[in-house]
Amino acid sequence: MAGGFSRFMLKILGWKPAGEMAPDGRNIYLLAPHTSIWDFAIGFFYSRSQGHPLKVMIKKEAFFFPVGLLLKAMGGFPIDRSNSRSTLVSVIHAMESDKGRPIELAICPEGTRKAVKKWKTGYHTIARAAGAKVFIAYIDYDTKTVGVRPGGPVELTDDARADTDRIQAIYASMNLRGMHRDGYTAG
Predict the structure, then answer these.
(1) Rounded to two decimals, what is the model's pTM?
(2) In this structure, are residues 67 and 45 in contact, taking their beta carbons and an 8 Å threshold?
(3) Which of 110, 138, 170, 174 is 20 to 30 A from 18, comparing alpha carbons?
(4) Does some domain include residue 158?
(5) Is 115 inside a domain boundary?
(6) 160 lies in a domain?
């Protein structure tokens, strides 16, 4: 039911799904570009159309009544951005103890909707600590396509900065456009 409704919503909104999400497991989907709050809705419908109820980290300030109830129902969980270490620990703990079920997480490595030159590496810490695979997901407002890049998970090394730079280069080669063009810098 949720998958059919989500496919319908993507179609109504004019979006095309591309690629397939990995089988259930401990997976992290990096999503870029992230320039608009609408990225959350499009990504939500895509993941649900694939049968994957992703969890998404959202700044705690967005969880005011009644919006917070909706965000939680859609897989959002509040994070305190003032303390990055405690955020990482709480996310790692959530990935390891979600009632025995595998948890899948969507993370925007830019960390904000503004253009940034160096992406954050927190996803890397989470993936390594939780034994999660990392996949490249994307949203392109020029082609109205949302999906997962084929080729399987990204191989991570012990060097978070080098891995993130390599991932940024992959995104740069994809020539993606965010809703707000000035809010995205891949490389």
Answers:
(1) 0.87
(2) no
(3) 110
(4) no
(5) yes
(6) no
What is d(CA 94, CA 88) in angstroms, rounded to the nearest whole number? 10
CA 150 to chain CA centroid, nearest Å: 16
Q: What is the DSSP string of 27-63?
A: EEEEEE---STHHHHHHHHHHHHTT---EEEEEGGG-
Number of domains comprising the chain: 1
Residue 122 corresponds to which amino acid? G
Dmax (CA) of the chain:
43
Q: What is the CATH number of the domain that holds 56?
A: 3.40.50
Instruction: Report the C-alpha gap between 187 and 165 in whole angstroms.
Output: 8
Amino acid at 111: G
Q: Please report whether residue 47 resides in a domain.
A: yes
Which residue do the tokens 């989907």 mark?
Answer: 29
User: Each residue of 4-36: pLDDT tens digit?
Assistant: 999 999 999 999 999 999 987 889 999 989 888
Residue range of the domain that includes 66: 2-150+173-183
Q: What is the pLDDT of residues 158-185, one digit of tens each?
A: 999 999 999 999 999 999 988 887 766 6
56 pLDDT band (50/70/90 cuts)? confident
